Amino acid sequence: MRRPKLADTMRDYSWPLFRADALAGVSVALVALPLCIAIAIASGSTPFVGLVTAIIGGLIISATSGSRVQIGGPTGAFIVVVYGVIQDHGMDGLIVATIMAGIILTIAGFFRAGRLIALVPEPVINGFTIGIATIIAASQLQDALGLSVGKVPADMIPKIDALWAARATFSPVALGVTAATVAAILLLRRWRPRWPVLVIAVGLASLAVIAFHLPVDTVGSRFGALPSGLPAPHWPQVSASRLVELLPSAFTIAFLAGVESLLSAIVADRMFDGHHRPSAELLAQGYANIVTPLFGGLPVTGAIARTATNVRAGGRTPIAGIVHALAILTVLLVAGKLAGALALPALAAVLLVTALNMAEPEKWREHLALPRDELLLLALTLLLTVFADLTIAIGIGVALGLLLRWWKGRGAAPWTPRGG
């Protein structure tokens, strides 16, 4: 079934439901604000682009999603591929690749390809998730340590070489701000998990930078003031040769958006006994990734952490996601200038914690206890993700995983992938 969940939930909608959805939407917006800014910066773009992505993409996904509680926006999984595309083809190239990915997702949704996620082996998902987390953490070392590097290479080994070459510019103050923000996030999550932890931690760190005149970069010092409104849509320059050149990146973006959104919907279903529609979910991702880049936005998908926050905060219909997008728009229109005061080491801390959560260290012992072939598949996917290319990692990982599944299926039962 391809009908959006919004159409179903509106039949018996009520004021009590709206109050719960509105509170949940505002809560998620407070979580999303610093995250979207940090993800955009790490992707080689600007803070404003991250907020635009959350507003436009989040609104479209909530309105058309196959899940009642899905929250859309930019996510850490895209940082690797987006940074590489911007480095090689510029922001205009990313826009073209994302629109192509949206078309691919729309076609996949039309042909009901959402159920194919069960064919992706869990070791492959875990391997490239840990690999992406490793790359995200490495990408934050420049701001976390206050290094003056300039343009950081996209590939891991040249990136580490460039960071090491700039070690003389290390700033103990920047490291202190980063460490204090990480500690605040982790402690507040344990002490007051229902509070907007990211906003509080980043806000306090940024206030300390201003109050004590600490010599660290801020959003305003590096990127200037944020615009106070949404940009007008524009169509990028397209040619046949450019489409061919960007096609591998488009498939990677489409794969990541499809897998992450479907995993997010599965996680949400388990939290409140829901039932998402995979085909409608892929169509929603397709629509969002066609329209959002026309406003200069990044690739967008269902965000697992924000969706889980929405469910825990009481959101039960797509109205919560719509409120989340409108709340971020309100902040951009009314208080966008405040974002210029955010300290970049504090935002780096947000992504370092995000990378830690993605890597799920509490599950590493389970990974090490896997059968040898599955552990090797996980390790290979991880290494290819970090040191080769995400497209290669996904292609080889899935191909080997399906081959192993076929081989094991001849004798013993194959493993069950996450969400299968």
Automatic annotation (TrEMBL):
One of its GO terms (biological process) is transmembrane transport. GO terms for cellular component: membrane. It comes from the Bacteria. Keywords: Membrane, Transmembrane, Transmembrane helix. It is found in: Membrane. It holds the Pfam family Sulfate_transp. It is a multi-pass membrane protein. The chain crosses the membrane at residues 21-42, 48-64, 93-111, 123-142, 162-188, 195-214, 246-268, 322-355, 375-404. PANTHER family: SULFATE TRANSPORTER. This is Sulfate permease. It comes from Sphingopyxis lindanitolerans. The lineage of its organism: Bacteria, Pseudomonadati, Pseudomonadota, Alphaproteobacteria, Sphingomonadales.
